[in-house]
């Protein structure tokens, strides 16, 4: 990819940015993770479970919003996660969707739902967090332009990561 390459940042990129920069790079470069990985299966299971219960994803081009509803005159975007363990990723991913909708001329508020903990967090786009988000988007574009991935760093998420064989083969 040429150095001036600027990708369209997606909600998934935002999520991985806060988990692991190497994974972010691998995802952006579409390097396929291990499809047999059980964590990929859990993701699929959650997706199918909510689809069967009538949950409809809404494609806004730069990502798929889990659910969008109207409460009075207010649009509410819901992002559904298993737990709040990766709350920062989930929070910025939701902010990103609110920002994308704002660019389309739609004002919405957000709700983060953590199903296992039965918790809900209301999220609003403000001047301050929009600035933070824009910095994150620029950083993701900077990572995307890197010719090689960042080195692997052992973090808790590695044990759940579909790339763990790729990063740590022979070390586990
Ligand atoms: S295994 Fe760890 S270092 Fe490698 S991409 Fe996944 S989270 Fe990142």
TrEMBL record:
EC number, as in UniProt: 3.1.12.1
Protein's UniProt keywords contain Repressor: no
CC cofactor: Mg(2+); Mn(2+); iron-sulfur cluster
Cofactor binding summary note: Mg(2+) or Mn(2+) required for ssDNA cleavage activity.
NCBIfam families linked: cas4 (TIGR00372)
Homology family: Belongs to the CRISPR-associated exonuclease Cas4 family.
Name of this chain's protein: CRISPR-associated exonuclease Cas4
Source species taxonomy: Bacteria, Bacillati, Bacillota, Bacilli, Bacillales
